[in-house]
Design goal:
Blueprint (H helix, E strand, L loop, with lengths): L10 H11 L8 H9 L3 H13 L19 E7 L6 H9 L4 E6 L10 E7 L2 H15 L4 E5 L15 H4 L1
Antiparallel strand pairs: 1-3, 1-4, 2-3
């Protein structure tokens, strides 16, 4: 079933989606805590999540790593100008590297020739430079830029169906 059709949502659905769109508690059974807050069973929560996944309402759960607090003090987005014939192969090679957290393709702009973007993370700037040089060698191109992170901005999950008091 595609996610394109309108799916009516009950008050429980809205409350559960609100809970799931925030940060989950770091517990052995985080969905049990969600269930307790909603006054339902953990099994009901898990069944609803599976139904949402089947209907295309949710695709996945993800974790957000706060790089600076976890020891990764040197971070950069590397932007690459990769020929169209090699972009899939190069992107796959970059994405397989353990220090690449994000790798994605974007359209080039009139004044911006870069089409492949990667985020890399290291504990020191020297490591970052070595990683970038290694990737440049792998890419076989000298046309790239390193845009280093100067500070980490606040990361927040999207909140669906916020409560009235959360809007203020």
């Amino acid at each position: 079933m595609s996610g394109a059709e309108n799916i009516p949502l009950s008050d429980l659905d809205r409350a559960l989606i609100r809970e799931l769109s925030g940060d989950l508690d770091i517990l052995a059974r985080p969905f049990a805590a969600v269930a307790r807050r909603l006054g339902v069973t953990e099994e009901e929560v898990l069944q609803k999540i599976e139904l949402y996944r089947e209907r295309g309402l949710i695709r996945r759960f993800g974790a957000v790593l706060v790089h600076q607090r976890s020891g990764f003090k040197a971070n950069a987005m590397l932007v690459w100008k990769i020929p169209a014939a090699r972009v899939e192969e190069t992107g796959a090679a970059f994405a397989a590297l353990p220090y690449v957290s994000h790798c994605y393709l974007r359209e080039e702009g009139p004044d911006w020739p870069y089409n492949l973007y990667t985020m890399i993370h290291a504990t020191r700037r020297e490591e970052l430079a070595k990683m970038a040089a290694s990737m440049a060698s792998l890419a076989g191109t000298g046309e790239w830029l390193a845009l280093e992170s100067l500070r980490e901005l606040k990361k927040e999950s999207v909140r669906y169906f916020p409560l009235v008091e959360e809007k203020a």
